[in-house]
Amino acid sequence: MVLVQLVYVSRPSRPLVSSDLMAILGTARERNANDGVTGMLCYSGDFFLQILEGERARVCATFQRISRDERHRDVYLLCYLYPERRLFSEWGMGYVGLGDIPRELVLRHSEDGAMRPILTDPHIAMAFLADIANHVSETQTALL
Predict the structure, then answer these.
(1) Residue 31: DSSP 8-state
(2) What's the pLDDT score for residue 37?
(3) Which domains does the chain have, with CATH numbers?
(4) What is the pLDDT along the chain (144 residues), one digit of tens a residue?
(5) Phi, psi of 4 (to 5 degrees)
(6) DSSP label at 143?
(7) Is the CB of residue 101 less than 8 Å from the CB of residue 94?
(8) Is 63 exposed, middle or buried (0-12, 13-18, 19+ CB in 10 A)?
(9) Would residue 12 be called left, alpha or beta, if left means φ above 0 and alpha means ψ between -120 and 50 degrees?
(10) How many CB atoms lie within 10 A of CB 109?
């Protein structure tokens, strides 16, 4: 099996309410469990930042499905990596709202606190996601 990590950003096509997010997460968790895909979704109201991990063909199929999903627009592949291990191995699809992430963590990756560098630079995005994984492991603030 070739392990890959895929990170993308997108914008919601319309404002989402809590029930929309729960539906997205419910479907993702079910499909990901069947496909052996793990990862995490971060949603701010203005954007999605998501990492998918797993076998190459299954991660690519998941990303293609997301790209066609009418709830997303401006889907942008940020990075595609071949890691030695999964960053989110225990998370079928974790979820963190941007408001659940301490401002200090965002400032660690962006001088002015804007998400711009995190959403455009693959190295910064991966460091940010790793910090989120550590933060959630320490505080259990994600819906796992």
Answers:
(1) H
(2) 96
(3) 3-139 (3.30.70.100)
(4) 899 999 999 999 999 888 988 998 999 999 999 999 999 999 988 899 999 999 999 999 999 999 999 989 999 999 999 999 998 888 888 888 888 888 888 899 988 878 888 888 999 999 999 898 888 777 765 544
(5) -130, 160
(6) B
(7) no
(8) buried
(9) beta
(10) 18
Residue with tokens 């550590």: 134
* Helix (H) or strand (E) run with residue 61 in it: helix 56-68
Tokens of 87: 């960053």
Altogether, the residues listed in the chain come to a count of: 144
SS (H, E, C) the chain: CCEEEEEEEEEECCCCCHHHHHHHHHHHHHHHHHHCCEEEEEECCCCEEEEEEEEHHHHHHHHHHHHHCCCEEEEEEEEEECCCCCCCCCCCCEEEEHHHCCHHHHHHHCCCCCCHHHHHCHHHHHHHHHHHHHHHHHHCCCEC
